[in-house]
Amino acid sequence: MSYTRAVLALGSNLGARSDTLSAAVADIVDPPEVRLLAISPIVQTKAVGGPAGQPDFLNMVIAVETTLTPLELLTHCHAVEEKHHRVRDVRWGPRTLDVDIITYGELVSSDPELTLPHPRAAQRAFVLYPWSLIDPAAELDGERVGELAARAADFADLVPFDGFKKLHGVAGAAE
How far apart are CA 30 and CA 25, in angstroms? Predict the structure, then answer.
């Protein structure tokens, strides 16, 4: 049985965002067909696209290896989203959890159900920057992901997220 490396991007801007991301990573790698290779730090970002006035997102990237086919992995990711109460009412609207397959091995596909690499990943610092932290040599469209991140329109809006914020001068849990 051979494993294929895949890069997944996770985001949340509703509910207990940090807790949701942590639980989602555990759910994604729960079956034996998916193994966790690397997990990025979390970044906080403004919503990109979609309706105005959305809460900020927490975003992260994980690298996995899997024996699932690309469409089986997509079905698994959708099941994890549903477990975390993902609702698909508004395109790019607020959500408890979003899991995108960014790459699946070297596969290039224009299938409308699963386009690979992810069609907008090369312009999204909230995907590229965390990915560059876990794999500095990674490339997308023939360029290093860190270099693509630095040129992305949303790069300036990225903020590291450590799970804590100051509350009246006292450090405390943010979520």
Answer: 8
89 is catalytic: no
**Active-site residue (options: 17, 27, 100, 154):** 100
* 6 three-state secondary structure: strand
Q: Mean pLDDT in runs of 10 for the chain (175 residues)?
A: 95 93 97 97 86 88 98 97 78 82 97 94 96 96 96 92 58 46
Does the annotation count 98 as an active-site position? yes
In degrees and rounded to multiples of 5, residue 100 shows phi and psi of -115, 140
Among 86, 124, 135, 154, the active-site one is 86
3 token code pair: 């494993």
pTM (predicted TM-score): 0.90
Identify whether 86 is a catalytic site residue.
Answer: yes
